[in-house]
Amino acid sequence: MDISNQDSIQRFLFDNHGVRGEIVKLNTPFTELLHDSYPKIIKKIMMELAVSSVLVASTLKDGSEIMVQIHGGKTSKIKYALINIRQDLSFYGSAALQDNCQIDDKDTLASVCSNDSVLVLSVFSKDGQKWQGVVQIDTTSIAKTLENYFKESQQLPTRFVIHSDVATSQAGGIMLQIIPEIKDNVESLEHLSILADTLSPQELYSLSFNDILLRLFAHEEVKVFEPKTVEFKCSCSRARCENALQQLSQQELADLAKEEQGTSMTCQHCGKTYTFTKEDLQTILAKVSQ
Question: Is 3.55.30.10 the CATH number for 8-232?
């Protein structure tokens, strides 16, 4: 297996078509993103959301951060699943099921998302402004849902090919998107999408980016750019947990400070646990009591 492009994304352009592309492969980030408590289908959804988020975020150049999330409907088994990704292509995320729902290895995207489930893509710009687009989940696939999003919300024809393998914690994909105002760009997208659809999971996981692009687009003139590294990087910290404790009422904090075993806080995104001893809590209490 060629791992030279593992955990990275590469941009490419076609000299003779008004289409741009991105190709990504992820493996290592899933060791922190995927919790053991997640059922198989939730792991698959999170992996494909991560791939999608990286592909979309890689097109932004203004310092924006984005969040791609699924909101489960009233009868969905899934409550939410989200990926938050920064401009440097580091990301974190989490997922949760509805209370008391039953889920097993036979479940699919269609069986965990009801008809009123939606995908929400939020863009947080560097100047503090927020933009949000919403599209109904296409239970065929997350890739199809994203294609619908770009068609309905952006009027920017885009194609996604996404593969994931929960057993080996590997996922990746290709995004093809028209470059506006170039003649015959939609026709070019349709032609190139047919070629991209022939990419098999095994080829994606085992070949380098250059070998994949050469195989898929052997008769096209493709310009490639330097790959960029993608990594999992959670936003949690001990300082943030301490700040959360300081937001409690003084009585609540005083009650915690009486507990001999102290308290602990576990990040929902990465699963890291931060422990605060009785003495730590007494120090925090004294600080907020001043």
Answer: yes
180-224: pLDDT as tens digits? 989 999 999 999 999 999 999 999 999 999 999 999 999 999 999
- According to CATH, the superfamily of the domain at 238-289 is HSP33 redox switch-like (3.90.1280.10)
Q: What is the mean pLDDT of residues 107-128?
A: 90
Q: Nearest Cα to 175, choosing from 142, 153, 152, 206?
A: 142
Reduced to 3 states, what is the DSSP secondary structure of residue 34? coil
Interatomic CA distance for residues 117 and 7, integer angstroms: 30
Residues 35, 241 contacting (CB under 8 angstroms)? no
What are the E-state strand segments in the chain? Answer: 8-14, 19-26, 65-71, 78-85, 90-97, 118-124, 130-136, 158-165, 170-178, 222-224, 228-229, 231-232, 263-266, 273-276
Q: Are 223 and 210 in contact (CB under 8 A)?
A: no
What is the value of pTM for the model shown?
0.89
Q: What mean pLDDT, rounded, does the chain reach?
A: 93
